[in-house]
Write a structure and sequence with these properties.
Layout (H helix, E strand, L loop, with lengths): L6 H5 L6 H5 L2 H15 L16 H10 L4 E4 L6 H7 L8 E4 L14 H10 L5 E4 L5 E5 L6 H4 L1 E3 L1 H7 L9 E3 L1 H4 L3 E6 L6 H5 L2 H5 L16 E7 L3 H4 L5 H6 L2 E4 L6 H11 L8 E2 L3 H16 L12 H21 L3 E2 L4 H5 L2 H4 L6 H6 L1 H21 L5 H8 L4 E2 L6 H9 L19 H17 L3 E3 L4 E4 L27
Parallel strand pairs: 1-8, 1-9, 4-7, 7-8, 10-11
Antiparallel strand pairs: 2-3, 5-6, 12-14, 13-14
Helix pairs in contact: 14-15, 14-16, 15-16, 15-20, 20-23, 22-23
């Protein structure tokens, strides 16, 4: 399709329709959303957003249908920025504007002085350019050093001197990010970090639809959809959203972490880099579940700061580290398929410790200790999903009779498998995780190690740091000591005299 390149051609094109001439960006979002709702389910509106179909997405839909500016409140790692950026899918594929205009003026209703003069001078010969949806999205991370000039703009004395203009003239304005987002979406991330006096500068644009620069009567009726994100704990940790600004935000929408392990697995599978350019990578389902349950356990653990939250980036990073550790082992031993084991999750501790904000009790224990306990907890819960009611007494008895087996982290499957076959009653249980004798050696070793780690997590067998599985050490009962009378020095009682 050849797009019109002059104002005259634009008048004779489909862009001349009255609706396109006067429609504002919030109406555009609303119209395109209605079209999307008529042809698809709400869940399909924001592709790649998992777990919000019945909670967050309907509230966002309502906010857009209501033409609201809205804010997403949620802890870190809850896809707030991704949702805001996905709003561009509701914008038109092409938007005409006056070529060269810094604020992308509507050719039919220009608001800046330069464009008004250009239309009056050039008429139908005025050059037209086009914006894509991505170019109509402007994002700013709020920091305490952001100024009004950054967001709104400032008077440029050099521009005034070169052009011979008065300082109060619109032609001397150097526009900030907000005017440059005209006819688009302007997003501010971590809004509470924005200084209070800067938040005041957003009032007029949200309610009255104009801005004033440096006290001069420069009025720009901008057409902007404003969206924000914030961590609710930041209200007290680093700053707050001032009350008048909160009052002008139409909808406040709360995000959340995945409600189920399956939702978490879907997000991690979607986001983690698993398609390596070497061997084929196969991640067993129980490994995915253990990784996801580490995050779930951390969010419940009293040693982890609930106000900070546990980002969904944790299982994503852990998954990538787990695959990399298994990949390193496969390359070393010339294996043709990369299948992670439970031991690879312990090797991914660096991807866990840095993402946990610990309370005092956790700080005393240390991040490494807490992370290992979280992994052990996740293994125990996952093991129960597969082996609840399974009779593992034969394998446990083999260890009780003095049996030991070592599974080194870097040991190849061909090296470890014969040893595992020597454990009575172990390999027969692999069918519970859909692994049989015809499966690859790597798959059998991974499944068998999962069983051993599960028994260890439930304290049915023991394991040391060298990954030697053995019988669980029975704690000797402390010998009872005879009652000993505590010797206290005699003191004279002081009684008041009658």
């Amino acid at each position: 399709m050849n797009l019109p390149r002059t104002f005259g051609e634009l008048r004779r094109s489909p862009f001349s329709e009255e609706k396109l001439r006067t429609r504002r960006v919030k109406d555009e979002l609303r119209d395109n959303l209605i079209t999307r709702l008529q042809s698809a389910k709400e869940a399909a509106i924001f592709s790649g957003i998992v777990g919000y179909d019945d909670t967050v997405v309907p509230q966002i839909v309502n906010a857009i249908l209501s033409r609201h500016n809205f804010i997403l409140l949620g802890l870190r790692g809850q896809a707030k920025s991704r949702i805001l950026r996905a709003l561009t899918s509701l914008l038109d594929s092409q938007l005409p504007y006056i070529s060269g205009c810094e604020i992308h003026d509507n050719p039919y209703a220009p608001v800046c002085r330069r464009c008004q003069e250009m239309i009056a001078e050039c008429g139908d010969a005025t050059r037209i350019a086009y914006l894509t949806p991505e170019e109509r999205y402007v994002e700013k991370l709020a920091t305490p050093d952001v100024t009004i000039a950054d967001l709104i703009g400032d008077i440029d004395p050099i521009k005034a001197a070169r052009g011979g203009h008065e300082l109060s003239s619109e032609l001397t304005v150097h526009y900030g990010l907000l005017p440059r987002a005209n006819r688009g979406i302007f997003a501010i991330n971590e809004l509470p970090d924005l200084a209070g006096k800067i938040q005041v500068g957003l009032f007029n644009i949200m309610q009255e639809g104009d801005v004033q620069i440096k006290g001069y009567p420069v009025r720009l009726p901008l057409d902007v959809a404003l969206v924000f994100s914030a961590n609710p704990e930041d209200y007290t940790a680093r700053g707050k959203i001032i009350t008048p600004l909160k009052d002008r935000i139409g909808s406040e929408i709360r995000t959340h972490y995945p409600a189920t392990v399956d939702e978490g697995i879907a997000i991690t599978t979607q986001e983690a880099w698993a398609s390596r350019n070497g061997n084929k990578v196969v991640v067993p389902k129980y490994v995915r579940e253990v990784i996801e349950r580490v995050a779930f356990a951390a969010r419940e653990d009293k040693r982890v700061d609930k106000r900070s939250g546990v980002s969904q980036r944790l299982p994503i990073s852990v998954m990538e580290n787990v695959i990399s550790n298994a990949e390193r082992r496969a390359i070393r031993h010339g294996e043709h398929v990369t299948i992670p084991r439970i031991g690879d999750i312990y090797a991914a501790l660096p991807a866990i410790t840095g993402k946990l904000e610990l309370e005092y009790e956790g700080e005393v224990k240390g991040a490494d200790f807490v992370s290992r306990e979280l992994i052990r907890n996740a293994i125990a819960r996952t093991y129960d999903q597969y082996f609840a009611g399974a009779n593992m007494q034969q394998a446990i008895q083999w260890f009780d009779l003095g049996g030991e087996v070592q599974i080194a982290e870097n040991a190849g499957a061909a090296e470890v498998l014969p040893t595992l076959h020597g454990i009575q009653g172990l390999m027969d249980k692999l069918t519970r995780v859909n692994v049989g004798p015809k499966d690859s050696q790597e798959a059998q070793v991974s499944a068998a190690e999962f069983i051993l780690e599960g028994l260890h997590a439930l304290k049915r067998i023991g394991r040391n740091e060298e990954r030697v599985f053995k019988a669980e050490e029975k704690q000797p009962r402390a010998a009872e000591k005879p009652f000993e009378r505590e010797e206290l020095p005699y003191t004279r009682s002081r009684r008041p005299l009658n």
